Amino acid sequence: MTANDYLDCYQPELVVIPCGSRKLGQRARAADLYVGSYHRACRRAADALRPDRLLILSARYGLLDLDDVIDPYDTPHGAADAITAEALLKQATVRDIVLLDPVVALGGARHAGLVRTIWPHARTPLAGTRGMGEQMARLAMLRKGHEQRLM
Question: Does the global pTM surpass 0.85?
Fold first, then answer.
């Protein structure tokens, strides 16, 4: 089974990728702030899907557009001061994106679970993986598979 078995051949309206613990040390655009290899792999796979919209799910700030400028932080998902499902729903409602479909959540179980509180129908191509290595491999397959379809 490949990562593409989890997704139909479509262009998603929205892809939501996770933030990351490795960040620049100063205020930056969300697209530039997260520098870890996992976040970057999710971003490359998301870009290959060519979504209408790409958002980052920040553990502190919630849903971020790539151009949102934010300060670095040390809040992991699940921490007392982390974004909640209720706050995410409010953000999605204000952005008028609650009814988007198809939606893809690239990230681990905690990330996908938060995304699914807003979009229960979201596709989660990393579901069932058993660790970071397997997720990275699946992200690479997803990216390569969609890039090949575009050639």
Answer: yes
